[in-house]
Design brief:
single chain; alpha/beta; Rossmann fold; 10-stranded mixed beta sheet; 3-stranded mixed beta sheet; globular
Length: 339
């Protein structure tokens, strides 16, 4: 993280969705690297007050109420900012199927509003958006909206002209323990004596919160512009995760019930498409999906990274990737601080 320490020191940072699960972790971690100020932008006043108290009113953190749907508000919030971490999103899949335009207004229109503000603000040099593997072959509104958001961020790299700005994206899998993930849900269901799993063959990619933060920070320092960074993360069967969680945390017998796939839900997930794989590099830790380029010379010149090689792995689909054993899942929960 030495490069990131130099990168972020004395910078003015804006985090949209800064009171959400990922936003809060980003704020806490960023404070370790001596930024000049962190502006936490979100629309929930109660969460802001709670987080402000948790941080003991750290004077480096400014809490700003607003919605990324509001163009004028965003433009004023971006003033003098150097780095933007865009974590604000509508991320709940079933609710999004019943409220699709709400998803579009936040994930698509809101992202474009923020991009426009970043382009108009001379001080902004880096823009990093957090996306999801549900943007790969999307079958639901949320995934489709995040795919569009990814395309908007990549396009911004070309719209910037000669401005000194980098626009890039990180694509997450399921982050253990965050709101909306299965872990908080399993906790509540264990209390009731029955854990619900939608399908016995459902698989997902999982990452820990520290892994998620490190991916964001690494992408910030090595991005050339327009790429999508994806962590190489383990795949597992959700039923096995439920079994392990019950064995570790249940104080009384708990059964598993299969409730059926929910609206907009996939049986399996992928981290990148076959089309993206053709322009993907990989390192030991991540996949780097570079923008479509015209010649190999441009590819090598503009999109070269330390330790990166052309994609060889096929373990970017839960159908192809080896699944964690129950013992390995237990270790993953321990690593993720799930207690």
């Amino acid at each position: 993280m030495n490069n990131f320490s130099e990168f972020i020191k004395d910078k003015k940072v804006l985090i949209t969705g800064g009171t959400g699960s990922i936003g809060r972790v980003l704020v806490r971690e960023l404070l370790r690297y001596s930024p000049a100020v962190i502006r936490v932008f979100s629309r929930d006043a109660a969460k802001q007050l709670e987080f402000q108290n948790e941080l003991q009113n750290d004077r480096r953190v400014r809490f700003i109420l607003g919605d990324i749907r509001d163009k004028e508000r965003l433009l004023s919030v971006c003033e003098d900012v150097n780095v933007i971490f865009h974590a604000a999103a509508f991320k709940y899949v079933p609710q999004g199927e019943y409220n699709p335009f709400e998803v579009v207004q936040t994930n698509v229109d809101g992202t474009q509003n923020l991009i426009s503000s970043a382009l108009k603000t001379p001080s902004v040099t880096h823009f990093v958006m957090i996306s999801t593997d549900k943007a790969v072959h999307p079958v639901n509104t949320m995934g489709a909206s995040k795919l569009l958001a990814e395309r908007l961020v990549s396009a911004a790299h070309y719209m910037k002209g000669k401005k000194n700005k980098v626009f890039t994206t990180v694509r997450f899998g399921n982050v253990l323990g965050t709101s909306g993930s299965v872990i908080p849900l399993f906790r509540e269901q264990i209390k009731r004596g029955e854990v619900l799993v939608t399908h016995p063959e459902m698989t997902r990619f999982f990452m820990t919160v520290p892994d998620a933060v490190r991916l964001v920070f690494d992408a910030s320092t090595i991005a050339r512009g327009g790429e999508i960074f994806v962590l190489k993360m383990p795949a597992l069967a959700v039923k096995d995760l439920a079994d392990v969680f019950i064995s570790k945390f249940a104080l009384k017998p708990v059964s598993i019930k299969f409730s059926g796939i929910r609206p907009g839900e996939k049986l399996n997930e992928a981290l990148l498409t076959a089309e993206e794989a053709r322009s993907t590099l990989e390192t030991d830790r991540m996949f780097i999906i570079v923008p479509q380029v015209e010649t190999n010379d441009i590819f090598v010149k503009d999109y070269s990274y330390s330790g990166a090689k052309p994609l060889a792995s096929v373990f970017y689909d839960t159908n192809l990737a080896p699944k964690l054993s129950k013992e390995e899942i237990s270790k993953l929960l321990d690593m993720g601080g799930i207690v």
